[in-house]
Amino acid sequence: MSVSQKQVLKLYRDMMREAKKITAYNFRTYGLRKIKDGFTKNKELTDRKEIQAQYDSALKSYEMLKRQVIVTNLFKTDNLVVENKWKSASNDNK
To answer: How far apart are CA 78 and CA 88, in angstroms?
Structure first.
């Protein structure tokens, strides 16, 4: 089965959406950066088998990410200073 561009883009959006649910700032930014870098790195692939292999790998990572979101959200932590500054700046702009 060949993977379409539409499927890849949907997986990318789903993974980014899921990573944004992580409450811990450091894990969230790491996850978002890792997803973006991984998809960008494989953007130029042309071999169907390699595309399928990378897609399957990303699907496994997506399943792991969903589990990690649940686990991370079980253990809430206080916001970091960086997050507090960002929130106050966005509130000032309203």
So the answer is: 15
